[in-house]
Amino acid sequence: MIGTTQRKKKTMQYLNDSQGHALTGTNGFDEPITYTVCRFQADRSLALMTVYRDEMGNMGADPVSVNLMAYGYIPMRGHTYINEEYLQLVKPLIDAEQARICSHIHYGSYNASAVDMEILIDNIEEIADQNSKEE
Known about the structure:
135 residues; 3-stranded antiparallel beta sheet; 2 helices; plasmid; 9 strands
């Protein structure tokens, strides 16, 4: 399910739960966030984003997903890699049963870690395509 919001003459689709309510959480500053997906340019894989409003009321989005293509990891359809430091940010998606953790990955020379997360929302790939269209 999706909802929409305006972003500079472009409609961004954000993620809703199975009841049609916006999936929401809070960021590290205890400010409200919601979620959306788009695509990484390098490999066109899913990129999960948190969406927020700043103190001036302007909308912003920050990536939660990490692109691990340089390390040889390309996620399956409907999956994205999340840095383990951001697991608390995606907990509302997991709690609402709209995402699940599938596996853990260690990568890079510093043995960083990420999780393979499957997003269980119907048509998630189409949402990402729509949000990534150039206008």
